[in-house]
Amino acid sequence: MSNKSLSKKWLYTFIVIAILALVTCAFALYYKEYIIATGTGLVFGIQAINIFKWKRN
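Request: output the structure for the sequence above.
Response:
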């Protein structure tokens, strides 16, 4: 992300992606698909970082 101000559309996009990644991670752990759970856990972490960066700006 650049230093430019981002619109609220991006915040909502980050939140939706983070929620979907977390739900997918939970289902993957339930079905013991650890590779998928790891990947979606990483996506959730990156989106959480994006949300915090957006809030800070």
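The helical segments are 8-30, 34-56.
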